[in-house]
Amino acid sequence: MALEFERPLIELEEKIRELEATAREQNLDLSEEIGLLKAKLERLEREIFEGLTPWQRVQLARAPGRPTTLDVAERLFEEFVELKGDRAFADDPAIVGGLARFSGRRVVFVGHQKGRNTKENIARNFGMPHPEGYRKAMRLMDLADREGLPFLAFIDTPGAYPGISAEERGQAWVIARSIQRMSRLKVPAVAVILGEGGSGGALAIGVGNRVLILENAWYSVISPESCAAILWRDAKEAERAAEALKLTARDLLELGVVDRIVPEPGGGAHRNPEGAIRELQKALEAVLGELEGLDPEALWQDRYRKFRALGAYRET
Amino acid sequence: MAIERLFRRRRTRGEGREVPELWIRCENCGAQLYKKDLEQNLGVCPHCGHHHRIPVEDWVKILADEGSFEATTGRVHPVDPLGFVDTEPYPERLARYQQKTGRPDAIYGGRAQIGGVPSVLLVMDYAFAGGSMGSVVGEEIARGAELAAEENRALVIVTASGGARMQEGALSLMQMAKTTMALEFVFQKRLPYVSVLTDPTTGGVTASFATLADVIFAEPGALIGFAGPRVIKQTIRQDLPEGFQRSEFLLKHGLLDAVVDRRKLKAELVRVLKLLYPGEADGA
User: How do the residues of chain A divide into helix, strand and coil, expressed in percent and rounded to 5?
Assistant: First the structure.
């Protein structure tokens, strides 16, 4: 299921594969032709990806095959143990978390979890948490504090679930609590936007000392579709809304909302998750290195200064 | 005959907009109310008890002790950080709301005594862009909390908001973290924070400072929640139960401390503030 703008790349890749097969089967030397096509592929890939519109990036952020929190956990950590449940009501499959070993150090992690296919997505509620998901995240923040372990949060949600059950159990209340709880962490906290950073449901686990974002991920106050539905009264205007919201990694870096962009390999993270996670590992090691010497008070100050400064206004 | 003529004449004058409207129809029960009576009743319909939205200045009159209020908001003005254009450019939208309300953005407040308790009182203005929270609202909430902590005042916030302001994108979202973190100074100094949620309070405001208060009051019948009813309906494709997301429903679900009639709110607020505010009696 390729995205529209990826088609030329996929066609070219197919052609290369065909030539390689022919060369093998007929024992021919086609290396020159293949080399030329590969160079062309690389060039085309660069051209397409440099010129991506915000809306195309939103589509990449949602593309099947893009690494989810559990994909990241499996490849990024030397080992991890998933911990479940909010100790009050239920286990929310839309948020996962646990203990892990990252580049030799012990850490606690949480993250939104989307499905890798439709069936899984239904079970995971498309990565849209209920209040119990955020309570699980807060419980893991408590654990990180108690054990003095760095806290890593992976963001990938269209938003917190907007449904009757979620509202009855205080979705807004629990998101506010989670923002507050995360801001109070006594340990280094890093948030990484892997794919979709949909509004308060994303920010609930986004109050990091450092906030990283994958190159083609998005993060905003509302999804382009919902924004279009409200402001243009037409969800089909999502493309325009995506432009207007300034939700791409580069825009967010300029606004100061994120601290660092994690580059994705050519073709995007969904076509090369391993490559994306290798880059993420480098970035995480670097930012954890900056934070690990700081005491709880310095970490709070660092977080407070960062978020206190966000906003644009003029004073008279 | 004479009386009929009198009625006819009044109606014509009303339609001609020559005199300010003296009568108002209750949004809920439809009763014709004399505007002055409704104002004297703090915007509460004397027939059905419906709480009408009232101007933010009226909120200050209701809650602050007479003559004690000193505004601190008004100096922070919105800008257009994204160059946002939807059906109209954001700066034009802002100018329209500024003209309508006489305020730079959707918040009004300052120092006040409430039942003798030194306080910072902040009121969100739904008439300004649906009370939406962008950088200015976030900044004023944060400054209000910091001022309360600095001057040992209680913090009282009256909310009315459709949520975060879309036209400032992720910066609006960040106000949720900023306001939440600024409250920390109030809590650290053991100063009370009480929020009063009015109709409607949804989205990013509910999911940040509004619901982090020590005591949460709500007005009767107020719509309060994370997602708006329209979004929920679209998501689940079902009709919503009667009274869903209204104050009384939320009280039952353990999310509020009390649903308080506006006419009794000041008394209730003062009682709570006096119990929470560290006074001389505690040897503080």
Answer: 50, 15, 30
Task: CATH number for B54-282: choose from 3.40.50.720, 1.20.1250.20, 3.90.226.10, 3.30.390.30.
Answer: 3.90.226.10
Question: So what's the pLDDT on residue A174?
Answer: 98
Residues A213, A161: contact at Cβ < 8 Å?
no
Residue A302, C-beta contacts closer than 8 angstroms, at least 6 positions apart: A209, A291, A294
Q: Does A176 sit within 8 Å of B207, measured CB to CB?
A: yes
How many residues does the structure list for chain A?
A: 316
ipTM of this complex prediction, to 2 decimal places: 0.96
A183 interaction partners in chain B (CB closer than 8 Å) = 177, 180-181, 184
Interface of B with A in 227-266 (CB under 8 A): 227, 231-232, 235-236, 238, 240-241, 244-245, 253-255
How many CA atoms are closer than 13 Å to the CA of A172, on its beta-carbon side? 30
Mutation for testing the B interface, residue in A138, A180, A221, A304 having most B CBs under 10 Å? A221
Q: For residues A224 and A64, give the distance between their C-alpha atoms in angstroms, rounded to a whole number.
A: 19
DSSP assigned state of A134: H
- Can you give the pLDDT of all 316 residues of chain A as single tens digits? 688 899 999 999 999 999 999 999 999 898 999 999 999 999 999 999 988 999 999 999 999 999 999 999 999 999 999 999 999 999 999 999 999 999 999 999 999 999 999 999 999 999 999 999 999 999 999 999 999 999 999 999 999 999 999 999 999 999 999 999 999 999 999 999 999 999 999 999 999 999 999 999 999 999 999 999 889 988 889 999 999 999 999 999 999 999 999 999 988 999 999 999 999 999 999 999 999 999 999 999 999 999 999 999 999 9
CA distance B38 to B251: 27
Q: Label the pairing between strands B76-78 and A313-315.
A: antiparallel
Instruction: Give the integer Cα–Cα distance in Å for B237 and B235.
Output: 6
Domain with CATH 3.90.226.10 in chain B: 54-282
| Residues of chain B found within 8 Å of residue A311, distances taken between Cβ atoms | 134-136, 138-139, 171, 174-175, 178
3 state DSSP class of B260: coil
| Secondary structure class of A106 (helix, strand, coil) | strand
The closest of A64, A257, A36 to A156, measured between CA atoms, is: A64
pTM above 0.90, yes or no: yes
How far is the C-alpha of A21 from the C-alpha of B64, rounded, in Å?
82
**Pick from B208, B220, B250, B196: nearest CA to B62:** B196
Q: For residues A89 and B145, what is the distance between their CA atoms, to the nearest angstrom?
A: 33
Residue with tokens 């579709």: A225
Helix (H, G, I), strand (E, B) or coil at B113: strand
Nearest to B255 among A161, A173, A180 (CB): A173
